[in-house]
Amino acid sequence: MTDEQEIRTLIQRWVEAVHTGDLDTVLADHALDIVMFDVPPPYDGVRGLEAYRETWPGFFEWQKSGASFALESLEVTAGADVAFAFGLLRCGMPDDNPELRLRLTIGLQKVSGRWTVTHEHHSFPHDDAPASEIVAVLDRWSADTATGDLDALMEPIADDVVSYEIDGNYTGKSAVREVCAAGLASSPGPITFTIPDPTIESAGNLAVAWSVDHITADNTETTSRATRVFRRTNSGWQLIHQHLSYPAT
């Protein structure tokens, strides 16, 4: 077996052990002074095998909820006693963004004839796209309101949505659909719905948007405060919660 093959086998064994929660195998072939740059803090890295050990139990518990950890690509380059490998893994829940991959770089050193991991770097790419994608959902709601297209309005709404509306609280997509249908039918003329300058914050597969909504019906404009929470799924961003209100007078 070549050095490249040995390293590939070592990493594949490590990936499988992470997925099954086999801590002893995860720790095997790692140096006592390993340095890991991981997705969560600390920002200066996890240093030493004992600190490395402590990072895994919480991750294993998360995986039990149905998450995957699977190698999709791996490239290995080996010298006489130093090597590195890089690859992409699928790491997440089944309904996570299917394009998202965990990036992995591993540094190795041959010690007493055995390849040993001295450095790991795990990361996800920083994604600025959610803000523009959420704006696209909000703009689409504006357009669909103008045309009175109820089916289109409901597409980005999750089945388990919880909506705190002006006149009450509603749970489930069908209940929110009735509210939207009543709103569209409330005016004999056109209705406009706009969300100027929303503020959007996102992390991973969740995003929060808050804004002051403008609604015009029967030539009367009203404004309401809105907070909306979105979850990214395989079919795109979906609204899972919204809270609408007027200030008390």
TrEMBL record:
- Which InterPro entries does the protein's record reference? NTF2-like_dom_sf (IPR032710), SnoaL-like (IPR037401)
Query: Matching Gene3D superfamilies, A to Z?
Result: 3.10.450.50
The record places domain SnoaL-like at 7-125, 134-248
The record's SUPFAM superfamilies line, in alphabetical order, gives: NTF2-like
Organism superkingdom? Bacteria
- Where exactly are the transmembrane stretches of this chain? none
Q: What is this protein called?
A: DUF4440 domain-containing protein
Q: Which residues form a coiled coil?
A: none
